[in-house]
TrEMBL record:
It comes from freshwater metagenome. The keyword NADP applies. Residues 143-283 form the Tetrahydrofolate dehydrogenase/cyclohydrolase NAD(P)-binding domain. One of its GO terms (cellular component) is cytosol. CDD domains: NAD_bind_m-THF_DH_Cyclohyd. GO terms for biological process: tetrahydrofolate interconversion. Pfam families: THF_DHG_CYH, THF_DHG_CYH_C. The keyword Signal does not apply. This is Unannotated protein. GO terms for molecular function: methenyltetrahydrofolate cyclohydrolase activity; methylenetetrahydrofolate dehydrogenase (NADP+) activity. Homodimer. InterPro entries: Aminoacid_DH-like_N_sf, NAD(P)-bd_dom_sf, THF_DH/CycHdrlase, THF_DH/CycHdrlase_cat_dom, THF_DH/CycHdrlase_NAD-bd_dom.
Length: 289
């Protein structure tokens, strides 16, 4: 099939997000609306962080999850922050804990994350959660990697036996996503590419699914894509022209089989998957749903 004959299918995140939230809300209501609580810890007055946290609380409340917000000044000490996280960790009425990142430079994020019990780590960022993912054990998966998989599943993109190339090796997206895609039930053959990959275009051309999470604006073009491949854009860059992704949409249209928009694609899946993790956390802690 020639590239000119391909109609590129768009894969917006909103329908997949809405399906997840509706399913979670139905589960909660059917169970008699039990008490499920998500706690967030926000340090400082960073405007984007405040916006993200507000969105998380708003979504939680819409589907029947209670929200608890802890706000600390940017001048708080490591000990003060750790004390709040430990308090939430020991509070049986709180089922999920999220510490909004990034933290101010004087605070040690790793020490803070280490205090969150794995069952309450709804961001999937702790070493124990990462280890559970590696070993195929029950646990919480990072919201962005999970969102990518849920998006693929929602649109019926085949994964079993398919070659997926993940570009970017961060512990937030690339590494956990690579492991997740290779899991039984998803069954991709995964190549993890990164900034030192010398033949990136050639590697990507062999893929059925290309997922880019580098934050390098429009770095993935039609040269990287085999005709009909599915392209998932996780990167985000703010340019003079507005928000753009890693994938040059104009270049790949008519060449790719499917493409997530940026914005409006994978990013809006994150909060929905946080809610999924929170509901699963409640179940792990004895709530019957």
């Amino acid at each position: 099939m020639s590239s000119e004959a391909i109609t590129t299918r768009m894969l917006p995140g909103a329908p997949a997000r809405d399906a997840i939230l509706e399913s979670l809300q139905q589960r909660i209501v059917s169970a008699g609306s039990p008490h499920i609580a998500l706690a967030t810890v926000l340090v400082g007055e960073d405007a984007p962080s405040q916006k993200y946290v507000a969105s998380k609380h708003r979504t939680a409340q819409q589907i029947g999850i209670q929200s608890v917000q802890v706000e600390l000044p940017s001048t708080c000490t490591q000990a003060e922050l750790e004390a709040e996280v430990l308090r939430l960790a020991s509070d049986s009425s709180v089922h999920g804990i999220l510490v909004q990142m990034p933290l101010p430079a004087h605070l040690d994020a790793e020490r803070v994350l280490a205090l969150i019990p794995a069952v309450k780590d709804v961001d999937g960022l702790t070493s124990e959660s990462m280890g559970r993912l590696m070993r195929g054990l029950d646990g919480h998966i990072g919201c962005t990697p999970l969102g990518v998989v849920r998006l693929l599943q929602h649109y019926g993109i085949p994964t079993a036996g398919k070659h997926a190339v993940v570009i970017g090796r961060s512990t937030l997206v690339g590494l956990p996503l690579s492991v997740l895609l290779a899991r039984k039930g998803i069954d991709c053959t995964v190549t993890l590419a990164h900034s030192r990959t010398s033949n990136l275009a050639e590697v990507c051309q062999s893929a059925d699914i290309v997922i880019s999470a580098t934050g390098i604006a429009r770095s993935i073009t039609s040269d990287h894509v085999s005709p009909g491949a599915t392209l998932i854009d996780v990167g985000i860059s703010r340019t003079e022209a507005g928000v753009v992704g890693d994938i040059d949409a104009d270049s790949v249209m008519g060449h790719a089989g499917a493409l997530t928009p940026m914005p409006g694609g994978t990013g809006i899946m994150t909060v929905a998957c946080l809610m999924e993790n929170t509901v699963n956390a409640a179940v792990m802690q004895g709530i019957v749903l």
